[in-house]
Amino acid sequence: MRDTANRMATASDNRHRSRGEAVGALISASVLVAANLVTLYVLYLAVAISPDGSWDVRQSADNVQLLSAVSGVLAVAVAVLTAFILATRWLRSRWWLTGPVVMLLCSAVRWLFPS
Fold this sequence. Notes:
This protein is mainly alpha-helical. The protein contains four helices and no strands. The chain has helices spanning 2-15, 19-48, 57-87, 98-112.
């Protein structure tokens, strides 16, 4: 009976955050959303680039590979930042890692197929 009471008390403690934890979660979420949006924008640029004509194919392929590499590096950096924030328990959902992982995979595919 005592064990059940301890588990219930722990569960209710986990649901209620202090004001500092709530502010930390809000700031962490804001930073991660901003970092994911910057990475997504660079990835969008890598996908949206197309050659202006037959003379521009090589240069646009080089630009696509460069932007894909930059977005891949940014995705890894955001994933590391997300893992740190999750490890400190400021945010609790592991779903925060989905965005950087998907963007990393898209960056790799775009880097492999630049044209």
